[in-house]
Amino acid sequence: MDIAIIGASGYTGGELMRLLLNHSSAEVVTATSRKLDGTPVASVHPHLRGLTDLTFRNIGAGDIDADFVFLAVPHTAAMKVAGTLVERGIRTVDLSADYRLAKDVYEKTYGVPHEAYFKAPYGLPELHRDEVRGASFVANPGCFPTGATLAAAPLAKYAHTIIYDSKTGVSGAGNAPSATTHYGNVGDNFSAYKWTNHRHLAEMKQEVARLGSDARCYFTPHLLPVNRGILTTAHILLREPMEQEEVEALYRKFYEGEFFIRNQRPTLAAVRGTNFCDVAVESEGDRVVAVSAIDNLVKGASGQAIQNMNLMCGFAEDDGLRSAGMLP
Ligand SMILES: NC(=O)C1=CN([C@@H]2O[C@H](COP(=O)(O)OP(=O)(O)OC[C@H]3O[C@@H](n4cnc5c(N)ncnc54)[C@H](OP(=O)(O)O)[C@@H]3O)[C@@H](O)[C@H]2O)C=CC1
Ligand SMILES: CC(=O)N[C@@H](CCC(=O)OP(=O)(O)O)C(=O)O
């Protein structure tokens, strides 16, 4: 199957190409960039040199010749081309935020009008597999909501309050230089940002509601001096206390058969470069602490996008995604 990546010069575009090298049925044939037309892909993704001969092309969605597209451009840019891809019948996973939320929630959260709204399944396969399977356009979740929601999902309907406290690596901000991610400001440092109003809170609330819960949700992200990974500590305040064994049994049952969810003490190192989400829980009665770890560029973006593609196209769900992490 021929794949095109729109926005292939960015971090998630590079990660899609890296992961798809190991896919049995999908091959990237087009990698677009507005600025790098004619330049070898390996010039901005040097880790792919010798593994791909592709050069970037500056072409629009109307000129793409592929069976499947990944949209790896910023929000508001994705909505400008999504309609063309749908009209042309090209199956698509959008990695941006443009189709993750209801229209009114999107417009309020992102502060822009949605120019081309339609409903799309929310591509968190562990929660919405049946909607993703067979869909022609899927909205890939945000990186923080992926780790946070997977940490809390089994207990959401027993909670009155969920507080997500996340620590992320800098690649979550994309590859464009900024003062926030400048080495001198991030290296040997640690800080919170958007303490109460990060745009991903809307996705977290949406998913908790879809799990049949009216729990209040709060979220504070922190920036770690690492390149990849998100560790989320979810403080789940329960309506009725639960013992450790009961909580563990609930998580075991909820994630039974889920290859990408592993039950072990979450660390960033163990999931780095992989599509795994490691989750563990500890109860102190009326508060359960659930911790998750993901790689923001893999389970938080490109790996989950490929997992969704696999479901949409009837491939094995783990095709291209069985690689182990790297330790130490
Ligand atoms: N980084 C992460 O951890 C995650 C990212 N995402 C989402 O995935 C998408 C891609 O993210 P990421 O790869 O990190 O971003 P990057 O900034 O690294 O790359 C995005 C690429 O899109 C192209 N681009 C930028 N602006 C526009 C525009 N207005 N129109 C068309 N193309 C544009 C640029 O390529 P060029 O200038 O060469 O055309 C750029 O290299 C974003 O929507 C992001 O929010 C989602 C989850 C996690
Ligand atoms: C470190 C850092 O800046 N992280 C980004 C993660 C956002 C992201 O990638 O999510 P979307 O897919 O919704 O754009 C942030 O906090 O905004």
From TrEMBL:
Primary subcellular site in the record, as a coarse category: cytoplasm
UniProt EC number: 1.2.1.38
Compartments it resides in: Cytoplasm
Record-linked Pfam families: Semialdhyde_dh, Semialdhyde_dhC_1
Alphabetized InterPro entries for the sequence: AGPR, AGPR_AS, AGPR_dimerisation_dom, AGPR_type-1, NAD(P)-bd_dom_sf, Semialdehyde_DH_NAD-bd
Superkingdom field: Archaea
NCBIfam families the record matches: argC
Protein name as it appears in the record: N-acetyl-gamma-glutamyl-phosphate reductase
The species this protein was found in: Methanoculleus palmolei
